[in-house]
């Protein structure tokens, strides 16, 4: 007589269903908290880290083009922190609500030429405490400290560290030409 043995069926453990949404998105309260965290992080980054601003005007030719370049500004240098002569800074123009970009020529205590080099008398001025002397690279087309006087360090928004040109997707990183010559 033949006997048949019964084969037990193989038990496959059940897996939870595949869910492609992260846990934070499945629960509305967690989604709100996650969104608030990202908004807070973005605010801190743009307010105290880096920002981008368009370059416009001929005052910084040939360093920047008149239109079409975007500048990356390091805001850890705002209010004049850790600036050196030769750095490019973004600042609030004191006579209106616009922003400008110029090169630092003098810091508190430095002596600078008040007028345009080679034109008129060569009067010198000492930059007062809490101020800096800013001049554009294109001297004939620049409205800067030669007309406005010393700029308060409180108006400095940050140091320009790079530029981006969307037309050819090119980044250019800037360094202080005066520091490069010393090292």
UniProtKB/TrEMBL annotation:
Keyword list (alphabetical) reads:
Hydrolase, Membrane, Mitochondrion, Mitochondrion inner membrane
Q: Which domain of life is it from?
A: Eukaryota
Q: Which GO terms describe its molecular function?
A: serine-type endopeptidase activity
Compartment list: Mitochondrion inner membrane
Catalytic machinery residues: 59, 102
An example of a Gene Ontology cellular component annotation for this protein is:
mitochondrial inner membrane peptidase complex
The processes (GO biological process) annotated in the record are: protein processing involved in protein targeting to mitochondrion; signal peptide processing
The keyword Membrane appears for this protein:
yes
Domain Peptidase S26: where? 34-114, 126-163
What InterPro entries does the database record attribute to this sequence? LexA/Signal_pep-like_sf, Mito_IMP1_subunit, Pept_S26A_signal_pept_1, Pept_S26A_signal_pept_1_Lys-AS, Peptidase_S26
Principal cellular location given in the protein's record: mitochondrion
PROSITE patterns (alphabetical): SPASE_I_2
What protein family does this chain belong to? Belongs to the peptidase S26 family. IMP1 subfamily.
Please state what the protein is called.
Peptidase S26 domain-containing protein
Upper lineage: Eukaryota, Fungi, Dikarya, Ascomycota, Pezizomycotina
């Amino acid at each position: 007589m033949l006997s048949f043995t019964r084969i037990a069926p193989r038990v496959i453990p059940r897996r939870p269903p595949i869910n492609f949404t992260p846990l934070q998105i499945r629960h509305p309260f967690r989604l709100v908290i996650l969104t608030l965290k990202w908004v807070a992080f973005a605010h801190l980054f743009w307010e105290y880290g880096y920002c981008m601003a368009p370059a416009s005007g001929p005052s910084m030719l040939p360093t920047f083009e008149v239109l079409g370049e975007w500048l990356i500004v390091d805001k850890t240098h705002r209010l004049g922190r850790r600036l050196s002569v030769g750095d490019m800074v973004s600042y609030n123009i004191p006579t209106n609500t616009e922003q400008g970009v110029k090169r630092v020529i003098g810091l508190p205590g430095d002596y600078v030429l008040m007028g345009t080099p080679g034109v008129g008398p060569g009067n010198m001025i000492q930059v007062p405490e809490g101020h800096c002397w800013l001049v554009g690279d294109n001297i004939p087309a620049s409205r800067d400290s030669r007309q406005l006087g010393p700029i308060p360090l409180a108006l400095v928004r940050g140091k320009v560290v790079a530029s981006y040109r969307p037309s050819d997707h090119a980044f250019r990183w800037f360094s202080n030409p005066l520091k490069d010559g010393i090292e």
